[in-house]
Each structure stands twice: as C-alpha cells, then as structure tokens.
Specification:
Length: 78
C-alpha cells in the first residue's frame, strides 16, 4: 500500500500546475522499488490462501488512511 502510494504520488505530482502544493506527493523512494516489490509479490503470493493476510493488511492500512483523513476533515471544536 505504501509503495503504491509513493508511486501514485510521483505520477500525480507531474500533473499539477505550477505553484500547487505537492510536497506530500513526493515521498522519497529507491529507484526500482516498485518493480522489486512486484517480483517479490509474484514469488510469494502464489494463490488465494497466500493472499489472505496481505490483503487484510492492505485493507487495514487503507482504513487507517480513511480514519486519518476523516479526523483531518472534522471541524475543530474549541
């Protein structure tokens, strides 16, 4: 999830207009990290049983993102 987010951020950052805030889209990543991750996943996730735990972890990560976003969007109560 995190590596995919970095890759997506890098793509999105190239499509912004000049002066648009982009720092949050340009997290550092090692060259070739996405390709290496895909090779590793292809080797280790060889069927539905092997994919259950990683899929659950990915869903949990996205739930954390959604929770953080909803907290950020809630109006401040003073």
């Amino acid at each position: 999830v995190l590596e995919g987010s970095r890759l997506g951020g890098a793509v999105l950052s190239t499509r912004l207009s000049d002066g648009a805030p982009a720092r949050f889209l340009t997290a550092p990543s090692r060259a070739g990290a996405w390709r290496k991750l895909l090779v590793l996943l292809d080797r280790r996730l060889d069927g539905p049983p092997a994919m259950q735990a990683p899929a659950g972890a990915a869903r949990a990560c996205f739930r954390c993102y959604a929770q953080a976003a909803s907290l950020e969007l809630e109006p401040l109560v003073v």
